[in-house]
Amino acid sequence: MTKKRKLITFDWAIKRLLRSKANFGILEGFLSELLKEDITILDVLESESNQDYKLDKFNRVDLKVRNSKQEIIIIEIQYDREYDYLQRIFYGVSKTAIEHLEEKESYSGITKVISINILYFDLGSGTDYIYKGTTRFIGLHNHDLLELNAKQKQLFKKDSVESLYPEYYLIKINRFNDIAKDTLDEWIYFLKNEEIKENFTAKGLKEAEEKFSIMKLPEDEQKAYEHYQDDLHYQASIFESSFGDGYYEGEVIGIEKGKVEGKAEGIEIGIEQTTKNIAINLAKEGTTIEIIAKVTGLPEADIKKTLQING
Description:
Blueprint: H1 10-16, H2 24-35, E1 41-44, E2 63-67, E3 72-78, H3 85-99, E4 113-119, E5 130-133, H4 150-156, E6 167-172, H5 183-193, H6 205-211, H7 219-284, H8 289-296, H9 300-309
C-alpha cells in the first residue's frame, strides 16, 4: 500500500522554497543521492550571469549553489525541446567557471562546476535515463589514464585529472519507468510524478514531502502555483502544435518562396546577360563606349570588362 500526496513540482520548489537556508536539507539530500557523496550547501549564488556585451547570451539556470568543497553546482530544469541543448549547458558551465575566477588568480583557482540537468524531453538517442559526462585523458598508444602527480594533487587538492574538470548530469525524466530500484530512483520518481511513496527512504525526501505539500501552502501561494501549472500546460500545447504545424507550413512556404525567388533571380540574370549582348553588338558596329553606356545603362568599366572577356 503506497501513500500519495499532491506535491508541488521541483522547479517551483527551486524558484520558491529551496533558495531558503531553512530548506537546504532537501536539496542536499537530492544532490547527495545523485553525486554519491554527502553534500553540504553553503549558499545560493546569483543564477543569471552578467552580460559582458549586449549580444552576449544569458547564462540562465534555475539554481546555482556553492557546496562546502567550494564547488559550484548549477541545476536547470528544461521542459521544451532544444536541439542545441548540449552546447547550451557547455556554454553555461564555461561561463560560470570564468566568472568565478578572480582577475589576478592563477588557473589553479578555477572552480569545479557540476551541471545537473533535469530534462522532460528526450535529448539525444540513448536508452538510459541518467547520463554522466566527464573529462578524461587516455593514451593513444598505451591506453593508460593520465593521472595527477604528487605535487599537482597537493596544489589542486584533488586525486584525479577528471575531478578538475566540469561534470555533467543529464536526467531524462520521461525515460524513467517508474520502478524505483534505489534511493536515487526514488528522487527521480518524485521529479516525474510529483508524489513520494510511503516506503521511500532517500535523503531529503521526507522533508520534501512535508514542505512541498500543496495543501500546506498559504492560499495565495496555492493560487499562484495553480496559475503556474496552467501556464506550463498552455506553453506545452502551443509548442507541440506549433512545432508540428509550423514545421510543415515552414517547409511548404520555404519551397514556394524558393520557387519565386529562384524565378526572380533567373529573370534578373537573363536581363543582365541580354543587356551585355546588346553592348557587345553595338561595339561591333563601331559604337563608342560612351554611347553604349547611355543606351544600356551599364557602367563604362563593366562594358570594357565585358568586351575584353568576349574578345
